[in-house]
């Protein structure tokens, strides 16, 4: 399929992959080596040791998942005449585990640096917390749907917004059978779902911000919610 590829073009792809692997290994060493040192010095409490082991396991799992993902792009597919690409399922799993690893690392670090505020457990505060957790899950789902868009090159199907071509809902959104396949393998449906999830995420973040304005919150929490809204709008 790429018989006319020049050597510089191949080198560009090769170095992109090579640098990604080296960067991933550097991240693993930057985490595991200091963690082993802190453990040996006795600077970790028992609960923190559990967190460290879990995060170390996630680092190793992330690397293995990356190899498993790339492997799918090198397999011969005799029934396919499309450009070689990795499995969108494995790409989504690789991205999802990376997000979990990053979020867990950030959460652990901030928990050590910033002691939690002692706030009265009011009904409004509990609602805010539950809504924040729901918004987090929605954002995570939106990111995973983005991996399916990338894996299927679904972003190339329609380039207009808010409509997809001349329609709000494309004709081929349920073209595959069984219907469930469309969600994960139909480029049109994958792009459509990603748009809906993206809009829903921005709406949820905006609603979270507006709801937080009605509750007396510490300055740090207000800054976090405001930053979340700013990042969502930028995204």
Q: Which properties best describe this structure?
A:
single chain; 235 residues; mainly alpha; 2 domains
List the helices and strands and how they pair.
Layout: H1 7-41, H2 46-73, H3 88-113, H4 123-151, H5 180-185, H6 187-212, H7 219-234
Structure characterization notes:
By secondary structure, this protein is an all-alpha fold. The protein folds into two domains: 114 residues; 119 residues, no CATH class. It has seven helices and no strands. The radius of gyration is 22 Å and the shape is flat. 13% of the residues are buried. The model has no long low-confidence stretch (mean pLDDT 91). This is COX15 protein. It comes from Cisticola juncidis.
Number of helices: 7
Please tell me what the overall shape is: flat
How large is the share of residues in beta strands?
Answer: under 5%
Mean pLDDT: 91
Oligomer: single chain
Helix amount = over 70%
What Rg do the Cα atoms give? 22 Å
Written as H for each helix and E for each strand, in order along the chain, the element string is: HHHHHHH
State the secondary-structure class: mainly alpha
Largest sheet composition: none
Distance between the termini: 35 Å
DSSP E strands, number: 0
Q: State the low-pLDDT regions, or none.
A: none
- As for the number of domains, it is 2
């Amino acid at each position: 399929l790429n018989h006319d590829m020049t050597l510089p073009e191949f080198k560009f792809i090769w170095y992109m992959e090579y640098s990604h692997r080296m960067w991933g290994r550097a991240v693993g060493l930057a985490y595991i080596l200091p963690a082993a040192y802190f453990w040996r010095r006795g600077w970790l409490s028992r609960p923190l040791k559990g967190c460290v082991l879990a995060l170390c396991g996630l680092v190793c799992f992330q690397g293995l998942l990356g190899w498993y993902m790339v492997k799918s792009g090198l397999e011969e597919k005799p029934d396919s005449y499309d450009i070689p690409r990795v499995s969108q399922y494995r790409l989504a799993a690789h991205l999802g585990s990376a997000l979990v690893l990053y979020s867990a690392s950030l959460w652990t670090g901030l928990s050590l640096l910033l002691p939690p505020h002692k706030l009265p457990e009011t009904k409004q505060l509990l609602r805010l917390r539950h809504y924040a957790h729901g918004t987090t899950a929605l954002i995570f789902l939106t990111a995973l749907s983005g991996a399916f868009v990338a894996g299927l090159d679904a972003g190339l199907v329609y380039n207009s917004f808010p409509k997809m071509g001349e329609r709000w809902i494309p004709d081929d959104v349920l073209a595959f059978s069984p219907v469930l396949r469309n969600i994960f393998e139909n480029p049109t449906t994958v792009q459509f779902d990603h748009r809906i999830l993206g809009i829903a995420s921005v709406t949820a973040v905006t609603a979270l911000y507006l709801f937080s304005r009605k509750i007396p919150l510490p300055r740090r929490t207000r800054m976090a919610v405001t930053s979340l809204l700013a990042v969502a709008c930028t995204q």
